[in-house]
Inverse folding.
């Protein structure tokens, strides 16, 4: 074998302001590289317990079955669907972006009889729209995305959850981009299966998926007639490892657990309400700055997620040229549009550690430079001035 | 909320000589904590290409579809099964330990009609035994474990693979504990779907699963009538992200990719043949040392894996007491027995970076101390002397 080895990985330093991964907190990155122990080491089992405790605080739940799935957010998504949906179950999926579509795809693979209701990209569902569908479809399971990462839309959940609960159906909620950035109340809203990811508002690298299941969801899972269609994602098996008997299931991603442990400590040190307020504050500055140079939102007014801003690319500005220059000249990553928004929208993340005043100001200053280069008309300095006005008025 | 935060993670320093995770190479741990970039960053895409190239060298294959699944080894295992097995496929699974049993479980969940053949724990299958089953069952898919982590048995693959290929069936091979420690020849042996893990002989934390699929396996997958039963593990979708079009599937575990990249560099720097020889050498010293204090193997003679030694716990020695003392007084982790071997067997790993002369000597010295404390009869110093003799005679 004539091996020509590549050099060791030397990553460029980026400011991650896309739809995720977001900026990793330096303390999290440092925790990631701490010495690995065995997955049944008494020390590791204690870390798992602590992790579960902190996840319960974050999800605002007492659910016993609260843990991290050994995969990225999509693995958590599929874990909720594959476990809750049995072949023949009627599943209602609310689709207003990529991640709703994915829920419908997954529910079909689980053997569910899937019905979707749809809204245009950027819009959210009203409680009445969901109620009408509940009456028509009479689903066993309902799935909806709280923070649609493809459109930046903030879907209100509380009233919809109450309506679903009234019918006896089980509700799956996607909080991948929501958790840590906006209020998620699993117990108060009586949600049945909720999943998230580490690489959004938790400022942790991708690789684990926090999930929580209500007691009634667990009951449905334990009564299944057919085995879950994935052994790896079968939460009744995974839960035996997280529970006190510690039955071996698979080798947990030890170092990722260290990183998430530190990430949760950081979020809870700040406090959830303080974190939500910070996300709102930085969004309002970004929004004011963008408005000052004529850039508006692609998301339904009033439903823009504080942590993910889907904004319209101005006429005459080339998407790729601008994003490439942002990355190469400033090290800033923002996200392209997906699906219906491809080429029309930028997705600017202000998630977790990335939601900082410095990031907002630097991005706006850099955007002014690059927009001017592309001949976009606006008053130079207007974006930064408008943002600063928001911060000064604190 | 009255949060009582746990302190930051401060792991004890362990010497990992169990069935995995094994000792992580310091260079790998350091690479893990390097700055995170986006999963579509041009830099990251290049790292993925390099990773694929190195994985192909390790698997000794030209297979285009060679990549890392975003989960632990078990996710790779299920990815091969769920993709290759279609509902109604006849699947023959060879079971001689935990991981064969798991393959059978997964094949059932995939909708396969599963037939198992079995051998006692610690033994391997002969080519004739498999040939007879092939004639009887006429399977579409066959699955077998090359390095059974629960028993330390080294299953010869080449002749069995030829027999399976002759029938036209597809062969899945588990190389989780094999890869990097013993010879795996994907192209030469014409294997169809092969999976591994990062935390065994690659000296990398758990969290990714290297996999490779032959062109004919890919053809079978692309012709499926029913969608793969997991979206997350659907390799036809995952491959679009690894291929030149880079279609977004899920957010890859960026930092784990850095770690695996460095781990593969280390293995290929040493060279595969040199690595295999090192594993054999250290095993022979361990084996001689253990024999000198009356400890023998639970695995069929001649089929003991160099990287994983399943040895019989001597009569009168308490399993838990000894393993606890090894961990607490020496920081050494060895593995307990699983299933049929529970309480009867220790599993001593000498995998990757952990397969070092220092580890062998320290373990034997510590074992002598602890065995003496438990009243086990042997000549003090005999284990270390026997091992040293192997090294001196180099």
């Amino acid at each position: 074998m004539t091996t020509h080895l590549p050099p060791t990985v030397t990553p460029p330093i980026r400011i991650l302001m896309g739809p995720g991964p977001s900026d990793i907190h330096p303390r999290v990155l440092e925790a990631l590289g701490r010495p690995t122990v065995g997955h049944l080491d008494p020390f590791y089992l204690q870390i798992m317990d602590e992790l579960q405790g902190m996840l319960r605080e974050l999800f605002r739940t007492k659910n016993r079955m609260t843990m991290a799935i050994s995969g990225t957010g999509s693995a958590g998504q599929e874990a909720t669907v594959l476990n809750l949906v049995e072949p023949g179950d009627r599943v209602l999926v609310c689709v207003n972006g990529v991640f709703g579509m994915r829920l419908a795809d997954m529910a079909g693979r689980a053997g569910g009889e899937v019905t979707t209701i749809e809204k245009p990209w950027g819009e959210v569902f009203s409680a009445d729209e969901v109620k009408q569908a509940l009456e028509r479809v009479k689903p066993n399971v309902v799935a909806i995305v709280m923070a649609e990462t493809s459109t930046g839309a903030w879907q209100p959940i509380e009233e919809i959850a109450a309506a679903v609960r009234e019918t006896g159906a089980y509700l799956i909620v996607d909080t991948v981009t929501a958790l840590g950035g906006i209020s998620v109340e699993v117990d108060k809203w009586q949600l049945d299966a909720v999943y998230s990811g580490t690489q959004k508002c938790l400022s942790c690298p991708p690789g684990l998926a926090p999930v929580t299941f209500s007691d009634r969801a667990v009951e449905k899972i334990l009564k299944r007639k057919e085995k879950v269609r994935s052994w790896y994602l079968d939460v009744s098996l995974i839960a035996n490892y997280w529970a006190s008997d510690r039955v071996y299931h698979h080798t947990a991603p030890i170092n990722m657990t260290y990183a998430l442990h530190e990430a949760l400590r950081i979020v809870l040190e700040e406090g959830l309400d303080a974190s939500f307020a910070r996300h709102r504050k930085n969004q309002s500055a970004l929004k004011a700055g963008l408005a000052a140079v004529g850039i508006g939102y692609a998301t339904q007014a009033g439903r823009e997620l504080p942590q993910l801003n889907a904004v319209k690319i101005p006429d005459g500005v080339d998407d790729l040229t601008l994003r490439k220059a942002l990355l190469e000249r400033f090290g800033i990553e923002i996200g392209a549009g997906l699906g219906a928004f491809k080429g029309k929208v930028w997705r600017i993340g202000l998630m977790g550690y990335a939601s900082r005043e410095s990031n907002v100001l630097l991005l706006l200053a850099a955007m002014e430079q690059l927009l001017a280069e592309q001949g976009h008309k606006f008053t130079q300095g207007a974006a930064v001035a408008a943002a600063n006005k928001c911060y000064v008025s604190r």
